[in-house]
Fold:
Amino acid sequence: MEQKNLVLAIVLSLGILIGFQILFPVPGPVPPAEQQRVEVTETPPAPATPGATPATPALVQTRPEVLAAAPRVTINSPRLSGSLSLVGGRIDDLRLKDYRETIDPGSPQVLLLSPPGAPGAYYGEFGWVAPQGSTAATPGPDSRWMSTSTEFSPTAPLTMTYDNGAGLRFTRIVEVDENYLFTVRDRVENTTGAAVTLYPYGHVSRTGTPPTLGFFILHEGPLGVLEETLVEYSYEDLRDAGAETHRSTGGWLGITDKYWLAAVIPDQAAPYEAGFRYSNQGGTDNYQTYFRRDAMTIAAGGNAEVTHRFFAGAKEVATLEAYQERLGIQRFDLAIDWGWFFFLTKPIFAAIDWLYRLFGNFGVAIIVFTIFIRILFFPLANKSFKSMAGMRKIQPEVLRIREAYANDRERQTREIMDLYRKAGVNPLSGCMPILLQIPVFFALYKVLFVTIEMRHAPFYGWIKDLSAPDPTTIFNLFGLIPWTPPGFLMIGVLPIIMGVTMYVQQKLNPVPPDPIQQRIFMLLPIIFTFILAPFPAGLVLYWTVNNVLSMAQQWIIIRQTEAGGGAKAKSAT
Structure:
């Protein structure tokens, strides 16, 4: 009975791991942003803000051609490079200086934003729109703004002006900080002889459906926090819905990738309409998230000013939390998909990140974190291992009872349970060390998968990226043979070490009396090696270190138990 329960627990754990791998497959490489090509054959649809129409791109052009087609002001900040288009006043050309597409330091910087008309257009835009039927002319996506600046930076804001020639003068001041936040101050002066009503707006637009990585474990696509509630739409969901609108005061909305975010952030004290929209023209998908503030009436001779913000950059935990605290942006940290078990995932990330700042290496941080977890669960694991050591000690007596009552299962079970009770052991306690690892295992997987801090984080030796699988494989002799095996044969050094530690640990456990169970237990290290090999190397490192610590703890307890038994036998004589 006890072995069946143990096998059941291990098979259940194995089933969870296999199911996890099937439901949340380890993603393959994502095509670099520059290599994503979207055929734009017609004008993209109008934004979901009344009166605003998009710039009209030509038929497919290269990105450099589109950038050269309009006057631009260079963005020069410590972490961003790119430009702002004076046609439309859009922020539509952005690269992230601190991030490369691959672990190769010579690979291109990550491209985040691209202008309309270029492949994979992706940009942020702000402005004013008039109510339907109004004759007030506001600057649109094709409007040419005037500026004497050729560059702006954190110490030198950009000032642009636009005059509609009919009594409305628009001024836009754009500031960029040291990280990824733009502040946009839009001002309108009314020199006409009558009051004018206008709506301030902002939106993020994206052309083409980008490749996505996650399945349940990660959200990529339109999202926002509206009325302090996280709202998410997958690209597929938004295609089916067409359009969704909400009312909110405070919050933010945008479009997210695994590691990157572009989001518009309205005044946190002002009510607004928020929307998510999908359209298709000429076979090209277009996605948009927007806000439109309530109408503002500018009296004759008067003026009005609004301030919006635009985030475009990496979803760094500390950076997002700093913006949230300093600017009062509602739940901005939810741009990172912490998942349903955020109460476990966030503390694990915080602990590993703190250890990283202490030791300077995420691999070392994971090892120290694993030791901490072992210490945390030490009393429970110790009790479990003591029970297993006791079972190992009475194993001969269990075999004797099985043989003596082989034809009387009821008597056999009763005698064995009496033996367990007298020996003070629990047959189910052996399941505990494995079951304890499952929640931490999944939470750590989430941390490795979604946090950019883990992206391209090296360990030592051949492990150059803890968020990716071990790049070596035994099936080409770890690179000595010039052949790349298929994915299921990518069994690297670290997974093999993990499998060996699991095998050794298994040898410390009581031997199952049933030959079939013995064979199952012998196969488990091999099965787990193949299952865990495609997982991030950081996760395999955690499991390996955990096995080693478990082995050490279990070995010490076995020695103490055997020594105690020997001392009792000696005193009895």
User: Anything to note?
Assistant: The first helix runs from residue 2 to 23.
